[in-house]
């Protein structure tokens, strides 16, 4: 493992309690003192700090758009990018089974470790300090993000995914509507070429049910 | 509407900016200056404060159990209970279409208003103050909650729901497994008496896929 002080310089924080940093870097495959509890804490801090930043930066934007922007900023892909900026892969403490894992598993381990680091820095200092650091880590991304851009809805993403694979577009069919006019529940089937069973989506409107089905389809296909 | 000072006494906070309180109480049906942005902010603050409280109260509990306890503490049902303790229904500002709505809609409007109040108090003061208030609001619930109790997993809840309706138990079938040994994706169908199509669940293990299917089934049935 590289010297931890190089990492701490990149993070912008020198730990008072270095054991906390080591714990944040320890994947569960490497032993019982792993980072999953810190990840739980860090995830909630990150969500809050980003929500607060978006709330103040976009005073006119509705909560749906804020929620989509936040999802973009805290998703695994973004966290794994941050991890690579910190060269976090060089510092992770992994068990023998995980050392050689690549691709999806690796992305997820990196992203989780970033959340664990956030939790660890919070415990090592306070909410003000981690907020300040997170705003620095996210500075460029917060400057770049715009409501409605890059936060494509699931149907659009599914369509683009299928187009990229030169497959036919999905078809959506309402198969059930229950409840009275003001409180309806729509069930939609999304049929995709190559997926044997229709993917189910539920929602309070046809549109929401279709988006839900598209989201589940993306879960299956990605 | 009742005098707002009675509500403020119940909440334990007197607003510096009373317009913020009014906004937190205003449902989107009542006009454009509604509480949805505050709700977005408040939701993230609540999640963070509860995560932090659980992290410190349960130093030995794993993140799965913390996550389930948090879900119990921040779910709509719990927030609607808090709303009733504050008699929040008396203060909500609703449009004509929502005034008479009852049941599910009402619960959801009350719960959302509690989140909006959390966001509003945070903006009116700071994170330390809202944390202190939330710990007071949740004092009894945080003292009562225990890992593994009342945080039943989706399969258990689905089973109990069906038993309560005197229906046969659901059956789970693995219909697809893709990927290599270390990185598999399971697709499970959950068949429920009276639900025409199987409900689909996806996960990195059979168990997780079954839980996912049960969760979707609960979404459909509840």
Automatic annotation (TrEMBL), chains A, B:
Entry-linked NCBIfam families: RNaseIII (TIGR02191)
Record-annotated RNase III domain positions: 4-126
Top-rank EC class of the record's enzyme: hydrolase
BP GO annotations: mRNA processing; regulation of gene expression; rRNA processing; tRNA processing
Name under which the protein is recorded: Ribonuclease 3
Chain residues that bind Mg(2+): 39, 112, 115
Predominant localisation class: cytoplasm
UniProt-listed Enzyme Commission number(s): 3.1.26.3
Family according to the record: Belongs to the ribonuclease III family.
Gene3D superfamilies named among the record's database cross-references: 3.30.160.20, Ribonuclease III domain (1.10.1520.10)
Catalysis: reaction(s): Endonucleolytic cleavage to 5'-phosphomonoester
SMART domains referenced in this protein's UniProt entry, alphabetically: DSRM, RIBOc
Pfam families recorded: dsrm, Ribonucleas_3_3
PANTHER family registered for this protein in UniProt: RIBONUCLEASE 3, RIBONUCLEASE III
Organism annotation: Oceanisphaera psychrotolerans
GO cellular component, one term: cytoplasm
Described purpose of this protein according to its UniProt entry: Digests double-stranded RNA. Involved in the processing of primary rRNA transcript to yield the immediate precursors to the large and small rRNAs (23S and 16S). Processes some mRNAs, and tRNAs when they are encoded in the rRNA operon. Processes pre-crRNA and tracrRNA of type II CRISPR loci if present in the organism.
Domain DRBM intervals: 153-222
């Amino acid at each position: 493992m590289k010297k931890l002080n190089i990492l701490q310089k990149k993070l912008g924080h020198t730990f008072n309690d270095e054991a906390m940093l080591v714990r944040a870097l320890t994947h569960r495959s490497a032993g019982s003192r792993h980072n999953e509890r810190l990840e739980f804490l860090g995830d909630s801090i990150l969500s809050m700090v980003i929500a607060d930043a978006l709330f103040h930066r976009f005073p006119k934007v509705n909560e749906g758009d804020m929620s989509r922007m936040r999802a973009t900023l805290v998703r695994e892909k973004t966290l794994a990018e941050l991890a690579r900026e910190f060269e976090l892969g060089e510092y992770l403490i992994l068990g023998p089974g995980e050392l050689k894992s690549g691709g999806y598993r690796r992305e997820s381990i990196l992203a989780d470790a970033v959340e664990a680091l956030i939790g660890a820095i919070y415990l090592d200092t306070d909410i003000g300090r981690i907020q300040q650091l997170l705003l620095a880590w996210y500075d460029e991304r917060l400057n770049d993000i715009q409501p409605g851009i890059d936060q494509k809805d699931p149907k659009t993403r599914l369509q683009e995914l299928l187009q990229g694979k030169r497959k036919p577009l999905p078809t959506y069919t309402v198969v059930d509507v229950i409840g009275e006019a003001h409180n309806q529940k729509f069930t939609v089937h999304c049929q995709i070429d190559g997926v044997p069973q229709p993917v189910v989506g539920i929602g309070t409107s046809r549109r929401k049910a279709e988006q839900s089905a598209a989201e589940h389809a993306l879960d299956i296909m990605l």
